[in-house]
Fold:
Amino acid sequence: SRRGRCVGGRRAGAAEAVAGEIYTDAQFQIWLPKGFFKSRRKVKEGTLFTSGNLRTAEIISVQKLSTEKLLMDAGVVPTGDLVSGWETAIGKADKVAALLAFARDNDAKQANGLPSKVVAGSPKSSGTTLMFEMDSEMLTMSSTNVKRITVVRAELLPDKQFMVVWASAPSEEFGPELRQRLEYSISTFAPRRVEADAAAKELLK
Structure:
């Protein structure tokens, strides 16, 4: 199965597969496909940004969250190094992915949603970067439930916080081209080191 093997990986020609642009924010930057709406919230934490395509129901959202709160909400006492890497902060990639999926389900506050499932074999971590894929399902009044596939990238920050980008679409729309552009988008995601930039400016005064 090709699912779970290359989440967030850059592929040759991905940028040329669909027109798009780099969106730059005070806290992050990310490549977005052409025609995606953009909605920036005036907050420093929580959901910072949402973008998407109303026709295909693709959604890309960016959050900034507390690493300590992620652990405490899961009943884990935060201790030790929470900034240098996911495995040193929390544990193996599978465990971290499950915690993030759980947090995402709780954040959605949708009682008609089933627990999201992390795709087996998809979680990969390297230093401060974590990537994985998950499946979500919403109960409906009809006999057919609404299913979404989400590719995820999370980046630890030096202040015991992390930023995470969720890129999702309905499973029936999730063909090779759509997968390619969403995976390419999260591969370009990069937090801007606001705290480091501010410190550098202070030194230059």
